[in-house]
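Chain X:
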Amino acid sequence: METGAGGAERANAAGDLLARHWRSVTVAIWLAACVWLLWQRWGGIHWFSLGDTDDNMRISQVRAWLNGQGWYDLRQYKLNPPQGFDIHWSRLVDLPIAGIILLVRPFFGGRIAEQAAVAIAPLIPLLLALVAAALTARRLIHPRAYLVACGMVLCCQVALDMFRPLRIDHHGWQLAFLMLTIAGLADPERVRGGITVGIASALSLAIGLELLPYIAVAGSSIALRWIWRQEAKPRLVSYAVSFAAASALAFAVFASYANRAPVCDALSPVWLSTILVGCAGLMLLSQIDPARWPARLLWALGAGAVATGFYWFTWPHCRGRLEGVSPELYKLWLSNVREARPIYMQNAETIIAALTVPTIGLIGAGWAIWRARRDEAVYCWSSIVVLSLFSVGMLFWQVRAGPAAQLIGVTGAAFLGWHLIAWFAASKRMPVRVFGIVGAFLLVSGIASYGVFPLLPKEQKKDKAFWDKVERANRTCPTLPSLHPIALLPPATVMTFVDLGPRLITVTHHKAIAGPYHRNQQAILDIHHAFDGPPEQARAIAKRHGATLLLVCPYMSESTLYRSRSPKGFYAQLERGKRFPWLEPVPLPKGSPYWLWRIK
């Protein structure tokens, strides 16, 4: 029988092995997660079920590029033809998708190449997120705590949805760079940490401005460290230089022709100049470098005021909403986007799922600050607490901040989980060790909170039969079999719902008038005016856009807006069965969820 001392030695040896080979173990965890996620979505991959409008638009942008459209030309010509409209994205996220297609296509053909791309591409940023979480845990908690942190990332279901196969939009990459930013903030090597945060922030901005507030908070936390401790100067300098240089390079390489103008919704001269002014201010602070912290604080406030004033007075057109949508478009369209609403306007399940991990992470990070109060790690934990508080606050603005809030909370939750697991593992009783460790992980990872869902009161809708039709339409209308008969028709410009536009242009050769993108706002308004207004107005709008087909999916979510908002409008009349002489019905197979007309 093995002695207790021998068992302890073997456990220590195994622990040392895990700590020493953390990179290989993290990759193995990622590969196991990939197998599981691919198995989960295999049917959707086969049917090319890109459920989100942005995923459909992304693959359309990649196709256009591979078919000869310029690197800097991000205009989508299949929406709002013939002029199209400019997408505010960049080619950075297109690179892995296009690379997989080019690698697979010569061997298996274009269809399988695209299926492989939409399946594999979202998993690449998941690896970066796991590595960053592992690095942060090793630096702040324990060399073996990366196992808990990686497990936490995979249990953050709201965030994990951004990395699942088919989710090829840019959010997964931005979240991965956010995790890399946190790893940089936790890096004890000051210069390397500053460079990591600077480059990760610049790449995130090159993709889009969604995480701009978090980037600003991360940069401010680096400045605050210098205010508290003069020894943090190398981190401040390396951050300022790398952020400025990487942003300028990202602008030169990835900014589209449209984004070279002073637009507010992308990395453009507006944001590049503001970043350069802010980084120049940080460099100036590092050169002045007062000996006393109150003086450093005053100088930092002055530099921040200069950068803010530069932005405010140099780019006055960017003082409001960065999307620049009109009040009418906000009322008709953007205010109805569910993810743009605050968390208190969501159902109970969404609230619990979005808040559990960030709350646990805040508790864990707060405890970590207390334990590290006499150690330099307290500054790292302070940065994480500031980010966590900010991310939770963002949820009360828009629930779309949920994935970022969950991942920011991972480090604090991993700290709490690591110490709870260690406490249970030290027990001499095997049941306590086994059930305690499992229970602790389920608790701190937020998985246990899902057990509350069956106990929550179910939302009772007044007209269940109607909402069942809505759910069925949302599920069936975007599918390949439903759109196949429409794809067989000669190429045409189709007037259809805004949310159907990206899917239509992705899986057919047709063009559409509008998609749900703020730079396409006039076309979006035209579609809303067409379905809300009188039939004569709809006909005039179709003629102005050169549309020769009218396609609707009755009961699809967007149709409910027109139905409730304008009960006497064009769409409501169509749904009630009224027909017009300028619309010639086009027969579709029995059971098709669509209604299709040729516009005379």
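Chain Y:
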Amino acid sequence: MLNDAVLHIGNIESVRGRVVEVRVNKSKNSSHLLYDGQIVKGISVGSYVKILKGFEELIGKVDEEFITEDKLVSQKDYKQEKARIKRILRLSLIGYFENRVFKQGVKELPLIENEAFLLTAEEFSRVHNFIKTINGKPDERLQIGVLSNETGTPIGVGVNSLFASHIGIFGNTGSGKSYTLASLYHKLFKCYGCKLGFKRNTKFLLIDFNGEYSKGNAITGHKKVFTLNTRLELHKIKPEDKLPLGKEVLFNVEFLSILADATEKTQKPFLKRTVELFNKVHKKGDSVGYFRGILKNQVESLLLMSDKEKSYQIIDYFEQVIDNEGTVELKRKFFEDLDWQNTNHHFYKRKINPTRQLSVAQIRETNIFKEAENYHFPTNDIDIIIHFLYVQLINDLIINKAKNDHIIPAINKLKSKTKDLQKVINFDSEDSLFNDSNFVVLDLNNSNLIIKKTIPMLIASVEYLHQKERYGNSQKSFFNLIIDEAHNILSYTSNRESETWKDYRLETFEEIIKEGRKFGVFLTIASQRPSDISDTIISQLHNYFLHRLINNRDIQAVERTISYLDKVSFDALPILPTGSCVLAGLSAQVPVIINIEEIPKKYEPYNKTIRPTDFWVEDDEDLDADTMPNEETAFSTNEESDDEDDLPF
């Protein structure tokens, strides 16, 4: 009883749902107490309080404290005026003890005059024991840091609770966001990297926009890095630096739609017809011969047309197929051979009178027909699919199934990306992305904007489908997609792309984050601008590591979409020191502010802030003293000069 009296701080004065007010005893206003031979920190904002309601032990966290004056009792009952002042704690109920285990949630509400107590060290430890029991077995513990206000208290989370979930790491630049990402995954690989089951059944793909994790041993030395570079000439790029995606990327409707930025109602159905045509042609024993037959039939239809405008458009498209590299000069040869009869609206053969419509025999003697007979597939797969796109467009125009203005933009967008795609994708490879390692980094630092926008979505779609297949074959398969600087591809406010493309891009990742858990797919995103990221994506995350956020829009985005935060943690976001963050979510029973544990320097990300003065003084002894500014005038101001010419304006 004596010990309980030491920890007793007051009684419940009001209960308003989860918000409870405690009237603090006058004797418990000191900052520290002596309990069981140890100094115990007194009650303050952010502390935990135990409320006894019969045999129930309810736990609350202090959100704020204030003083008020007791006006219900007459002044004569107080010896001193200051005795009228009451100290009130306003706290939120966060959980309860059951069988000596802390559980999150509200089981019961307290009653007025229930007693409130400080937690013992053992009870404090129970509140911060985040290791859960899954299927009768305790989760594996992974220590990630220590409490900021109790640096002797280590914080560990369950491996399954954390990594079998979607994770969000947010914070301004320089707040320690990238370090936290590196620390979490380094610790995971340190614990499990040598396990055979881990190597076989897990795959990690990190999309790195700034090259922070691709260099050296950042996170782990056992990784495969694809350095995607669009600045170099094609012949200078090593095959091993290209993504081994194979032909399935080009000859798949969904992937073509991504590359061509296709609209849903017109362009995507056209791409579907093109893929069907491709599959039909390549099922034939002599695919190139069958394709030549299609071209010859289209030439006959073209030369029997009565619509001049449409026929001239089709000639332009034939030139893209037959005269792809500009060596055949198809259009010049065409009009050397043929011309248009404006009166009767048909093509006719030059130097033959009268100018009658061409016969089938004459058509087969034309230059364009002969070029169609001699057609060969290009050596490059991207050029092949573009040829099929034009042939499908010609066919649609002949039968009036499509309009040129609706389809050509998709083809042109795909063509504009062909050179860049050849630099970053190996279409001839049949290798898996994870052939050499189960941890793959895509370094996009030297890629242009088109590749930075396209490749992450493309590779996410490809690997998501592959993981579905793997998971269908084995329920052990696990895939984790990690996106650093995620606002680059998950933003819903970008003005540099069409609304259709933006919706398609967001839907791709929103499907992964909403449905991926069923197939062993989990997403980790890190960003300095949570306000730019889709609310749907942020709200679907399970665990959050929130570093310093200063921008009001970012703070509001966090408040709007994350329900796990309490008032104390939320108010701390703008003032968190570098390396500290708020941990909240399913892996933590209560939101806590922690200092991320240090990892060896060689595993840190390559993103240190430079110290200019470290290299400003390099080799200063080699400088000619005559070229150095005079010490007395080097930092003089313009106020010292009477000459108008010396003024900075």
